[in-house]
Amino acid sequence: MLNTDNTVALVVDIQERLLPVLHESGDFVANSVKLLTGLRALDVPVLITEQYPKGLGVTAADVKTAAGDAPVFEKTRFSAYTDEVAAAIKAHHAENIVLLGCETHICVLQTVLALQLWGLNVYLPQECVASRTPANKKNGLRQCLAAGAVVSNIESVLFQLLRDAKHPAFKTISKLIV
């Protein structure tokens, strides 16, 4: 079960040079920022990966700002579950990963498969993953679901972590959702 003590967010490759080719990239970035803002209000640790930043650029500025001082891990493999990321997840004693990023049918899917292999529960807010085409996103989400990931949404994830209207972050989270 999701809770703030056993959950880490992993941002996969939301990079400057990828955004122009992604379907509905503006909404994708805005939703990712909303989710990250809520996760940070709940003190959920955030990790970021960048696929070959020399070629694809760095993490989009709005996403990087929303993620705060999250560590950034460079990679060339498609799965974001590198040895360095695995060590960071383990250091946080995480059982659950809230996964967001692109592309749904490539890097996100391969990350889901790797995380599942190592016994981690994966939650994918559907508004916070993207691909170049809607068909690829839909197909990627279906494959992630078939692999055992929970395909969810921003509100469900944040309110599962929040658990109670008496939580100190309730007002912050409520304002994000409106």
UniProtKB/TrEMBL annotation:
<protein>
    <submittedName>
        <fullName>Isochorismatase family protein</fullName>
    </submittedName>
</protein>
<dbReference type="InterPro" id="IPR000868">
    <property type="entry name" value="Isochorismatase-like_dom"/>
</dbReference>
<dbReference type="InterPro" id="IPR050993">
    <property type="entry name" value="Isochorismatase_domain"/>
</dbReference>
<dbReference type="Pfam" id="PF00857">
    <property type="entry name" value="Isochorismatase"/>
</dbReference>
<feature type="domain" description="Isochorismatase-like">
    <location>
        <begin position="8"/>
        <end position="155"/>
    </location>
</feature>
<dbReference type="InterPro" id="IPR036380">
    <property type="entry name" value="Isochorismatase-like_sf"/>
</dbReference>
